[in-house]
Design brief:
The chain has helices spanning 4-14, 65-73, 88-97, and strands at 18-21, 36-39, 56-59, 77-78, 80-83, 102-105, 121-122. By secondary structure, the protein is an alpha/beta fold. The protein has a single domain (4-153), classed as Aldehyde Dehydrogenase, Chain A, domain 2. The strands form 3 sheets. A 3-stranded mixed β-sheet has the order 1-2-3, with no helix packed on it.
C-alpha cells in the first residue's frame, strides 16, 4: 500500500466482511496487505461501491448473465470489466451491454494495451481517454511527402 493510513483505511473497510482469504498485514518492511477475497457482500453495501485501491476483490454469485450485467452496471464505476467464458455469444452480449471503458474477454483487467486509448465511464471517467501512441502526435510536426521519381532523369 502507499501508506500506513491507506492500509488502515482498507482494513477498516473490511471489518465485518466475510473474508475468504487475506485481510491481514504482511510482516515485511512497508505497508503490505495480503491479497484479499471477500464474499456475501450485498451489492448495495458501501464496500461494493467503494474504490479501495488495494488488493481486494469481492465474489458475487448471480443466477445468469443478465443478473451479472445488472450487478456490474449498478456500480457507480466503469473503468474496466472482464468476462471469462467459452461462449462467443455470451462474450459479445457482455461486451455490448457492460458499461465500462475497457472490456476484456478471458483475461484480467490489468489495464489497456499501450497503443489503445484508455479510460472509464461513470465516476471512473473524466470525459476523455488517455491516448495511446497517438499522444505522440502532440510532440510531432507532420509533413506529407509524395515523391514521384523519374529514374530516367538521373
Amino acid at each position: 500500500m502507499i501508506s500506513e493510513a491507506s492500509l488502515d483505511r482498507i482494513l477498516a473497510a473490511l471489518e465485518g466482511a466475510q473474508v475468504v482469504t487475506g485481510a491481514q498485514r504482511l510482516d515485511r518492511p512497508g505497508w503490505w496487505l495480503a491479497p484479499t477475497v471477500v464474499e456475501d457482500v450485498p451489492a448495495t453495501a458501501e464496500l461494493s461501491s467503494t474504490e479501495l485501491f488495494g488488493p481486494v476483490t469481492i465474489l458475487y454469485r448471480v443466477r445468469d448473465l443478465e443478473a451479472a450485467l445488472e450487478l456490474v452496471n449498478s456500480s457507480p464505476y466503469g473503468l474496466t470489466s472482464a468476462i471469462h467464458t467459452s461462449s462467443l455469444h455470451r462474450a459479445m452480449r457482455f461486451v455490448d451491454a457492460v458499461e465500462a471503458g475497457v472490456v476484456v474477454v478471458n483475461a484480467g483487467t490489468h489495464g489497456s494495451e499501450p497503443h489503445m486509448g484508455f479510460g472509464g465511464v461513470k465516476q471512473s471517467g473524466t470525459g476523455w481517454r488517455e491516448a495511446g501512441v497517438e499522444a505522440l502526435d502532440v510532440y510531432t510536426e507532420w509533413k506529407y511527402v509524395n515523391l514521384i521519381a523519374d529514374p530516367e532523369s538521373t
